[in-house]
Design brief:
The complex is a heterodimer of chains A (384) and B (98). With 384 residues, chain A is of the alpha/beta class. Chain B has 98 residues and is of the alpha+beta class. The radius of gyration of chain B is 14 Å and the shape is flat. Classes of the chains: A alpha/beta (384), B alpha+beta (98).
Chain lengths: 384, 98
């Protein structure tokens, strides 16, 4: 069954790969683009106009660190003029005086601020940037003073999972409306650092109970969005709401992708904005059509009654773990290699015992990735 | 947990409004009204839209109920519970301010 192609609702714009932090779980690709590859102001504004024409209602301005773009005010103003809802996703470190107010004035709708830890030492260590926690607190205060609604985003892993109650306190203290307790997704840099980041099963269970309790207690006060960890799941997440179904993303050089990690699927070719229009890419790009809908599915997805709930899960996780982007996401209990997830968790626990915290990380920076990811990370043995 | 606010509860005297991070907008591509919020886009049905549009910060909940009863030619008591439940739910999701 082919469903009619609907226009996209959301778009993630990775304005730059430059970032003052070096978080080892970063979802950016391990091959980071330098500033000279970034689209210029005019091109972004042109792209945004096409996105609005195509039906995009919401744009998440991200990176890297999007505030490193000196034209961010201009980009926000361009989107705002078209009525597009703008969400700035920032690390909140080193934003010059007056700029947050300028973003608000340009029409920014919402600001999402990441915290690597709820404690200063954790934030500074995970982002590998001394004093960053203090700067983030200041950013939160300035955003609220400028009248901007605030989401606190907490990417969760082994080194901060016990801080979940403190993240909740922090979000309340900073007068945030939303808190995202988002367990790290093992793509990009996080896949390289998987052994160092993977939490223990017991900690994951404690975390789920804490979040559930806090949600109940804070109903109508703080919205807590919980992104559970895939490797401990029974069913996969409907990644991006389904491949090329209602959202897409654009990299700093204008490459249009169905999701963050799509470039890890080696046989897909992605198109750049400028060579073709956004509408052409959304409709016709072979990469977008490769896993759209349900026709591409194999068993057990093909006949599964959850196929239009999960959309097969994450194609890139299937690529990374099953070595087949058209396989069922191994996070799914129905995947024939689901047991491999538990084995990866166990292996990570054993490997992590041999690491001291800091030495375990490959920090995210241009040229910082190992030249080749160890083959067993990308292509595990074929047996379970 | 130390919260700066308490959970707001709907009363007939509440004057609901849309917070700054929520807005209703006509989408010319889909020819429908959308409610835009930080992570989600909602497509309200006609009645939901009629309630949300009256959340102007001036009208009380009892005024909104009376208006809607009039518009839909229904008894106020039939409308009241639905409107209160709707507003409580949207307030709990921080999409409406009471």
């Amino acid at each position: 069954m082919i469903e009619p192609l609907l226009p996209p609702i959301g778009m993630l714009a990775e304005l730059t790969h430059r970032c003052p932090l070096q978080c080892p779980y970063c979802s950016n690709p391990t091959e980071l683009l330098k500033a000279n590859r970034e689209l210029n102001t005019e091109t972004w504004l042109y792209l945004f106009r096409q996105a609005a024409d195509l039906g995009v209602l919401q744009i998440h301005l991200s990176g890297g660190e999007p505030t490193l773009r000196r034209d961010l005010e201009q980009l926000i103003a361009g989107l705002s003029a078209r009525g597009v809802y703008t969400n700035l996703i920032t690390a909140g470190v080193g934003i010059a005086e007056g700029r947050i107010e300028a973003f608000a004035e340009a029409g920014l709708d919402h600001l999402q601020l990441s915290f690597q830890g709820a404690r200063p030492a954790t934030t500074d260590r995970i982002g590998n940037s001394r004093g960053s926690h203090e700067k983030k607190l200041e950013t939160a205060r300035r955003a609220r003073a400028a009248g901007l609604p605030l989401t606190i985003n907490a990417p969760i892993h082994r080194h901060n999972i016990e801080e979940v109650p403190e993240f909740i306190e922090l979000a309340l203290l900073l007068d945030a409306e939303r808190l995202e307790i988002a367990n790290v997704q093992y793509g990009g840099w996080a896949l390289i650092n998987r052994d160092a980041l993977m939490p223990d099963r017991a900690a994951v269970e404690r975390q789920a109970a804490i979040v559930e309790g806090a949600r109940e207690q804070l109903r109508g006060i703080l919205n807590i969005d919980f992104v559970p960890p895939d490797y401990f799941a029974i069913y996969p997440k409907p990644c991006m709401g389904g491949w090329a179904r209602d959202a897409f993303m654009v990299t700093p050089d204008g490459t249009v992708l169905p999701c963050h990690a799509a470039q890890t699927i080696p046989w897909l070719e992605f198109e750049r904005f400028g060579d073709r229009t956004l509408a052409e890419i959304w409709t016709d790009s072979p990469a977008f059509n490769a896993y759209r809908g349900t026709d591409w599915m194999q068993e057990p997805c093909r006949s599964c009654d959850r196929r239009e709930i999960d959309w097969g899960g994450c194609r890139c996780q299937a690529m990374a773990i099953a070595d087949d982007a058209a396989a069922t996401d191994p996070a799914c209990v129905k995947s024939p290699i689901h047991a491999r997830m538990a084995r990866i968790i166990d292996d990570a626990r054993i490997a992590a015992e041999g690491m001291k915290d800091r030495e375990g990380f490959v920090y995210r920076r241009i040229g910082g990735a190992p030249t080749a990811v160890p083959p067993d990370r990308v292509k595990p043995a074929l047996t379970v | 947990m130390m919260a700066l606010h308490e959970r707001a509860m709907v009363t007939p005297q509440s004057r609901p409004s849309l917070p700054r991070h929520v807005r209703i907008q006509f989408d010319p591509v889909r020819q429908a009204f959308a409610v835009l919020s930080p992570e989600s886009v909602f497509w309200p049905n006609e009645i939901s839209l009629d309630i949300l549009r009256r959340c102007d910060g001036h009208s009380t909940v009892s005024r909104i109920i009376a208006d809607l009863a009039d518009e839909y030619e229904a008894e106020e008591e039939d409308v009241a519970a639905d409107v209160a439940a709707f507003l409580q739910e949207w307030s709990d999701r921080l999409l409406v301010k009471l």
